[in-house]
Specification:
This protein is mainly α. The protein is built from two helices and no strands. Helices cover 76% and strands 0% of the residues.
Length: 75
């Protein structure tokens, strides 16, 4: 039983780590969209509004994964 709890804790830590990385990447893209992070992305030929939606979606999904992993109750 102890090995199973350890495995669940490891999986929770992995999910929280991946969610945190996604949140940081989404925040960086959103800051680029708002012009607060001065990075020239015009060479990508992607409309600016697409970058905004991509960044916001990536940020919010990362926050959701971290929140889910943080409040999930062990059964």
């Amino acid at each position: 039983m102890d090995n199973n709890q350890s495995s669940e804790q490891r999986m929770r830590l992995i999910f929280m780590s991946v969610g945190a990385i996604n949140t940081l990447l989404g925040a960086a893209i959103t800051l680029i969209y708002f012009g607060l992070l001065h990075v020239d992305i015009s060479f990508l030929d992607i409309p600016n509004w697409v970058m905004g939606i991509l960044g916001a979606t990536w940020f919010l999904s990362g926050v959701g994964v971290v929140a889910f992993a943080a409040i999930r109750v062990n059964k």
